[in-house]
Amino acid sequence: QVQLVESGGGLVQAGGSLRLSCAATGRTFSDSAIAWFRQAPGKEREFVAGVSSSGLSTYYTESVKGRFTISRDNAKNTVSLEMNSLKPDDTAVYYCAASDRHFIVVVHTPYKYWGQGTQVTVSS
Q1: Based on the number of CB atoms within 10 Å of its own CB, is 70 exposed (0-12), middle (13-18) or buried (19 or more)?
Q2: Using an 8 Å Cβ cutoff, are 71 and 105 in contact?
Q3: Sign of CA dihedral 84, 74, 100, 28
Q4: Is the distance from CB of 45 to CB of 102 less than 8 angstroms?
Protein backbone atom coordinates (compact mmCIF):
# COMPACT_ATOMS: atom_id res chain seq x y z
CA GLN A 1 0.00 0.00 0.00
CA VAL A 2 0.97 3.61 -0.56
CA GLN A 3 0.09 6.52 1.68
CA LEU A 4 0.35 10.06 0.34
CA VAL A 5 0.55 13.43 2.06
CA GLU A 6 0.44 16.71 0.15
CA SER A 7 1.96 19.99 1.25
CA GLY A 8 2.85 23.38 -0.16
CA GLY A 9 -0.53 24.89 -0.86
CA GLY A 10 -1.39 28.43 0.08
CA LEU A 11 -2.62 31.81 -1.04
CA VAL A 12 -0.79 33.57 -3.85
CA GLN A 13 -1.47 36.44 -6.21
CA ALA A 14 -2.10 35.86 -9.88
CA GLY A 15 1.19 35.42 -11.68
CA GLY A 16 2.85 33.92 -8.65
CA SER A 17 4.29 30.48 -8.06
CA LEU A 18 3.85 27.58 -5.71
CA ARG A 19 5.55 24.25 -5.35
CA LEU A 20 3.44 21.37 -4.15
CA SER A 21 5.00 18.25 -2.72
CA CYS A 22 3.65 14.77 -2.23
CA ALA A 23 5.41 12.57 0.28
CA ALA A 24 4.76 8.86 0.05
CA THR A 25 5.17 5.93 2.36
CA GLY A 26 4.92 2.37 1.22
CA ARG A 27 7.09 -0.15 -0.47
CA THR A 28 5.54 0.04 -3.95
CA PHE A 29 5.85 3.77 -4.65
CA SER A 30 8.40 3.31 -7.42
CA ASP A 31 6.03 0.98 -9.28
CA SER A 32 3.21 3.51 -9.45
CA ALA A 33 2.36 6.26 -11.84
CA ILE A 34 1.60 9.41 -9.86
CA ALA A 35 -0.78 12.16 -10.83
CA TRP A 36 -2.00 15.46 -9.50
CA PHE A 37 -5.71 16.14 -9.67
CA ARG A 38 -7.60 19.20 -8.58
CA GLN A 39 -11.14 20.00 -7.64
CA ALA A 40 -12.54 23.51 -7.65
CA PRO A 41 -15.82 24.50 -6.01
CA GLY A 42 -18.75 23.34 -8.10
CA LYS A 43 -16.57 21.41 -10.53
CA GLU A 44 -15.63 17.80 -11.09
CA ARG A 45 -12.25 16.53 -10.05
CA GLU A 46 -9.91 16.91 -13.00
CA PHE A 47 -6.54 15.57 -14.02
CA VAL A 48 -3.75 18.13 -13.93
CA ALA A 49 -0.45 16.34 -14.47
CA GLY A 50 0.98 12.86 -14.28
CA VAL A 51 4.32 11.13 -14.27
CA SER A 52 5.08 7.50 -15.05
CA SER A 53 6.68 5.20 -12.52
CA SER A 54 10.12 5.73 -14.02
CA GLY A 55 9.75 9.49 -14.18
CA LEU A 56 10.56 9.43 -17.88
CA SER A 57 7.08 10.26 -19.15
CA THR A 58 4.89 13.18 -18.18
CA TYR A 59 1.55 14.44 -19.33
CA TYR A 60 -0.29 17.67 -18.63
CA THR A 61 -3.77 18.90 -19.18
CA GLU A 62 -3.76 21.57 -21.86
CA SER A 63 -4.59 24.45 -19.55
CA VAL A 64 -1.38 24.04 -17.51
CA LYS A 65 1.12 23.18 -20.23
CA GLY A 66 4.10 25.48 -20.10
CA ARG A 67 3.21 26.63 -16.58
CA PHE A 68 3.31 23.49 -14.42
CA THR A 69 6.04 20.88 -14.12
CA ILE A 70 5.67 17.50 -12.46
CA SER A 71 8.67 15.49 -11.31
CA ARG A 72 9.43 12.60 -9.02
CA ASP A 73 12.32 11.40 -6.95
CA ASN A 74 11.87 7.71 -6.30
CA ALA A 75 14.85 7.61 -3.96
CA LYS A 76 13.09 10.09 -1.69
CA ASN A 77 9.56 8.84 -2.37
CA THR A 78 8.41 12.29 -3.38
CA VAL A 79 6.56 13.91 -6.25
CA SER A 80 6.49 17.63 -6.87
CA LEU A 81 4.31 19.97 -8.87
CA GLU A 82 5.95 23.28 -9.68
CA MET A 83 3.27 25.79 -10.59
CA ASN A 84 4.18 29.07 -12.24
CA SER A 85 2.17 31.93 -13.69
CA LEU A 86 -0.77 30.97 -11.55
CA LYS A 87 -4.23 32.12 -12.50
CA PRO A 88 -7.40 32.47 -10.44
CA ASP A 89 -8.80 29.51 -12.40
CA ASP A 90 -6.09 27.36 -10.82
CA THR A 91 -7.77 27.77 -7.44
CA ALA A 92 -8.69 24.32 -6.18
CA VAL A 93 -7.85 21.60 -3.74
CA TYR A 94 -4.95 19.68 -5.23
CA TYR A 95 -4.65 15.96 -4.65
CA CYS A 96 -1.75 13.61 -5.17
CA ALA A 97 -2.79 10.16 -6.36
CA ALA A 98 -1.02 6.89 -7.08
CA SER A 99 -2.23 4.24 -9.48
CA ASP A 100 -1.50 0.54 -9.59
CA ARG A 101 -0.04 0.91 -13.07
CA HIS A 102 3.28 2.08 -14.43
CA PHE A 103 1.91 4.55 -16.94
CA ILE A 104 -0.23 7.63 -16.77
CA VAL A 105 -3.99 7.66 -17.09
CA VAL A 106 -6.08 10.81 -16.96
CA VAL A 107 -9.24 9.56 -15.29
CA HIS A 108 -9.34 9.35 -11.53
CA THR A 109 -10.82 5.90 -11.00
CA PRO A 110 -7.64 3.86 -11.68
CA TYR A 111 -5.80 5.73 -8.95
CA LYS A 112 -6.00 3.62 -5.83
CA TYR A 113 -4.32 5.86 -3.28
CA TRP A 114 -5.07 9.49 -2.53
CA GLY A 115 -3.73 12.16 -0.26
CA GLN A 116 -5.93 14.46 1.79
CA GLY A 117 -5.41 17.41 -0.53
CA THR A 118 -3.85 20.84 -0.19
CA GLN A 119 -5.65 24.09 -0.90
CA VAL A 120 -4.31 26.42 -3.57
CA THR A 121 -5.95 29.83 -3.78
CA VAL A 122 -4.95 32.34 -6.43
CA SER A 123 -6.21 35.87 -5.96
CA SER A 124 -6.90 38.23 -8.83
Answers
A1: buried
A2: no
A3: negative
A4: no
The whole-number pLDDT of residue 57 equals 95
Pairing mode of beta strands 92-99, 118-123: antiparallel
How far apart CA 53 and CA 43 sit, in angstroms, is 28
28-65 per-position pLDDT tens digit: 788 889 999 999 999 999 999 999 999 999 999 999 99
CA–chain centroid gap for 9, Å, is 11
Per DSSP (E only), the strands in 1-124 are 3-7, 10-13, 18-25, 34-39, 46-51, 58-60, 68-73, 78-83, 92-99, 111-114, 118-123
Share of the chain above pLDDT 90, in %: 77
What phi and psi values does residue 30 have, to the nearest 5 degrees? Answer: -70, -10
Confidence at 2, pLDDT banded by 50, 70, 90: confident
CA 101 to CA 117: how far, in whole Å? 21
